[in-house]
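User: My instructor asked us to take a sequence, write out its structure as tokens, and then describe one feature of it. I'm not sure where to start. Here is the sequence I was given:
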Amino acid sequence: MSTVPPGPTGAHPWDDEHHDEDEEAPHLHVSRRTLVGIGVGIVALVALVVVVLPQVNGLRSTYDRISDGDPWWLALATFFSALSFGGYVAMFKRVYVRADDPSAKRIGFAESYQITMAGLAATRLFAAGGAGGLALTAWALRRSGMPARVVADRTIAFLVLTYLVYVIAVILGGFGLHFGILEGEAPFALTVVPAAIGLVLLAAAVALTYVPEDLERRFARWAAGGGRVQRLLARLSTAPAAASEGIRMAFGHLRRRDPALLGAMAYWGFNIAILWACFHAFGEPPPPAVLVVAYFVGLLGNLLPLPGGIGGVDGGMIGALVGFGVSASLAVVAVLSYRVLAFWLPTLPGAVAYLQLRRTVTRWRQERAVERRQDGVTTLNEVPTKTPTRSAS
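Assistant: Let's start with the prediction itself. The structure tokens for your sequence are:
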């Protein structure tokens, strides 16, 4: 659980936590292996557009589409990109920062922007699932004074709220297309299968909310003095215990109708709008339901262990769109344009945000050092002095 035992009278429960002040920031360095991988991916994409596509029947119009792209639609797509990340920043602040937290006075919208954009840059530069971004976010929040368990719980809540929109969109879009409720083609593998998987994931998340809050403590008592198996099960119990707390926290945001969910919807909605505008720049977009489902199915390519997801998401989206009957040449130019605007372009301000965040964390460290010294002086001043009594004459 995210609760921390109460500290001294008048102090916040977090004040007694150790925050690893000397922990170094995750470095956004790019290793030689990552550089090679990114280079190979870029070369492959260029070869695809310059060499392969013109030789494939039906794809020779790709160059015509690129040269005839409407700059106004591309400008609108860039604007949608800014709105998407604005929703992401707003959601971050709603989920991670609370008015009664000591860190609330440190993490405003400017700091939330730095953490989220730096985390996104780290996600772009490393492979598979965004672990670099999560590590950087956790480091920054810990430096603000937030305990590790609180960071973990709120991170799970943040991820659940973010991907809840993803899962619900796939379920409604997939089944809606399959049963003819929504307009568009409905290949079984791209509609019913992802929707069914989404239902299973949603049911699993709901089931985890029923895990007892004291599960970890129960297993710890059971394993005390036990054998190796008992100790192993006790350690394994920490994962569902932590996950259940974060999921309950996320569902609590939903019950309160927290605007954080609007931030998640804005993030995904404007991201899809970038792809929609890119389609308009080079031709006609597919029906909205097809665009949404193909977008989310294509994003599964991000799970492939490729540097920055190069090739995985691009190929996944293009393949999904073609599977829905979209012209291959149009899908290629629209998706590649989308990836430049939504994926690579934000990496530049993200790298700047990382440098700003390091300075911000240095300032936080100095502020917290001053606060600890002031608290020490206050504690000394509050020690009651014993007034000598006057003896009776």
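For the description part of your assignment, you could build on this observation: Residues 1-11 have pLDDT under 50 and may be disordered. Try explaining in your own words what that tells you about the chain.
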